[in-house]
Amino acid sequence: GSEAASEQGQEEEVEDRLKEHMDNLLDKSAKVRQAALQSLRQALSSKTLSEFLLERRLTLTDSLEKCLKKGKGEEQALAGTVLTLLCLQMGSGPEGEEVFRSLKPLLVSVLTDITASPSARQSCATALGMCCYIAAADFE
């Protein structure tokens, strides 16, 4: 009994931290946004969070879109990585497809922008390839 309660408490603590990181993606400070992206990258690559993300995918997708549009260099690169991990977590179902479809034009835009940093372009290329492989319904 107490072990299950302890596990539930840890789960809630993790979710609270993730919510905080997601809120920080909208901060005015680029440093705060980058730290939030790094924390999300770490969380998404170390634990399956599909239930938590399912309810918040639109919010997270919107925040990542802002980071890709308004961010520079490192922030764009991190946003591309987090997007790849989000797609992996969502899988090949309609949710993953929706995330990919909404951000695909932006990924292509950053990828083809010669003024974007090489790391941002590389990250967006990887995100585009991985998300396309996982979640694209259209074979073309």
TrEMBL record:
Disordered: annotated segments: 1-21
Residue span, Interferon-related developmental regulator N-terminal domain: 5-138
Source domain of life: Eukaryota
InterPro entries per the UniProt record, alphabetical: ARM-like (IPR011989), ARM-type_fold (IPR016024), IFRD (IPR039777), Interferon-rel_develop_reg_N (IPR007701)
One Pfam family of this chain: IFRD
Sequence similarity: Belongs to the IFRD family.
Name of the molecule in the record: IFRD2 regulator
